[in-house]
Amino acid sequence: xxxxxxxxxxxxxxxxxxxxxxxxxxxxxxxxxxxxxxxxxxxxxxxxxxxxxxxxxxxxxxxxxxxxxxxxxxxxxxxxxxxxxxxxxxxxxxxxxxxxxxxxxxxxxxxxxxxxxxxxxxxxxxxxxxxxxxxxxxxxxxxxxxxxxxxxxxxxxxxxxxxxxxxxxxxxxxxxxxxxxxxxxxxxxxxxxxxxxxxxxxxxxxxxxxxxxxxxxxxxxxxxxxxxxxxxxxxxxxxxxxxxxxxxxxxxxxxxxxxxxxxxxxxxxxxxxxxxxxxxxxxxxxxxxxxxxxxxxxxxxxxxxxxxxxxxxxxxxxxx
Amino acid sequence: xxxxxxxxxxxxxxxxxxxxxxxxxxxxxxxxxxxxxxxxxxxxxxxxxxxxxxxxxxxxxxxxxxxxxxxxxxxxxxxxxxxxxxxxxxxxxxxxxxxxxxxxxxxxxxxxxxxxxxxxxxxxxxxxxxxxxxxxxxxxxxxxxxxxxxxxxxxxxxxxxxxxxxxxxxxxxxxxxxxxxxxxxxxxxxxxxxxxxxxxxxxxxxxxxxxxxxxxxxxxxxxxxxxxxxxxxxxxxxxxxxxxxxxxxxxxxxxxxxxxxxxxxxxxxxxxxxxxxxxxxxxxxxxxxxxxxxxxxxxxxxxxxxxxxxx
Lengths: 320, 311
Description:
The complex is a heterodimer of chains A (320) and B (311). Chain A has 14 helices and nine strands. Chain A has helices at 9-28, 33-51, 56-63, 71-78, 120-126, 133-149, 166-170, 173-186, 201-205, 226-233, 240-247, 251-256, 275-294, 298-310, and strands spanning 79-85, 97-104, 107-114, 153-159, 191-200, 212-216, 220-222, 262-264, 315-316.
């Protein structure tokens, strides 16, 4: 199933046309290379034009794209010996958040990430990447294990938000998120968080208190979804595009606001059209940051994280 | 204390003893009000004297920040902190009204620069660092200023080796400051972790109506003790959001203090009128201090504090 967003359509149509010409070439033994080349040139140009000036709302749609690489795709591409670990040891195993250990360029590490599904069946299992308290508690359990054994932690953030449901509230959604934030602040191992799609509020931050926070170019990180914000401010969820603008949720905005340390560029066309390419560059950037953090002593890692978050925010009149 | 026998909170302009809800009784609007909990007609002065708690049914009316702090803290010297911190429109956020204009309007209405009041004082003789949300200021929402002030409460408590107390009433993170508001959750919690690790001092979280969103999902749910006022709305997601998500109506009493107690999410429900003694009693135990046979209104012995602004 190939989902095509409106603004991607012209490019996708050209690509389809190119594929058709190739088929004709093959079937009939004719040489259409000139036309193909011209169309390819055209499609590259078009793609570049569209993707070099995406609106915040278009980026929001890309961040949610059904073909966008998810946590397990990055695990598959960048890690070896992946061993998934299950359960919060209190009765639940939340499938919206995957945890486990693996090797990253030979080093043993822990990996934690939200996981969305690609179709309805998978999404029911993954709850659209919206974790319940059980998911956050599982993540905390695994992070504490990493702390005991001195393993670096990679997190991949990709959630519309923590699940707003009756059961989630009853089991302490707020407490589970709060506890993760608190405990992540104390970790003495390197923690690198990467926003790969949607960085949805507290549900994202619950695995986001890291020494380095990276963001893919077409991902978003926000205190509230644009639609949720629009529903409150303009009483109309359809005003999402306007809210996406106002909330400054793009990677570039988050970088300017000091919330994100590095933006990982995506090829024109977006991560979902260039999965191998984006995985390679994510891998290289993760390696760079991990190598830097590995040079720090455990206590320095904790201090580094404290210093990073201590300065967050903009205000006037701060005492010297 | 350099004033003519008045208690510190009585000198604050914004101190307002008038209840903010309930139906005024037509002919004597200044004297009587009707309790929305039990429909009892209440004498306003008596309601005030009872900390805006209905003398008949225990319904908790809203209470002003200064009124609340006055009821909680010992008489004597208190230091106010971070009153100069002011919000900045970092996003140039505009909805129906620019954020900058919203800030101005709220500041004028409420008489402070943002939604939080931080003080050093004592409770039944135990020195404490206290912070209290002001819900009247943009729904007590947490932006950079509130986050900074809370972080400072924990850092001060850590430095001075004192317990911290935060009294929450907030809709959550402030939308108008976007992801910067979200980051306040991390900033405050990181400071709390230091208070726990370095000073080893207790932190009591008091939840009042309402405590939701990013405030609930950070320091508010992390108290060594979590004490909730009766009937407060407490939760992560707002009831409307949940109803829309699941497409069904919510169970009776969902997300009230009582519901949270039943589900193991708060330690106790404590009436506003008992809050001071409950905090005093539990803090003395946690700090291994002798049982406080302090008469409730006996002024404690306080040292003169250096620095800060005393009023």
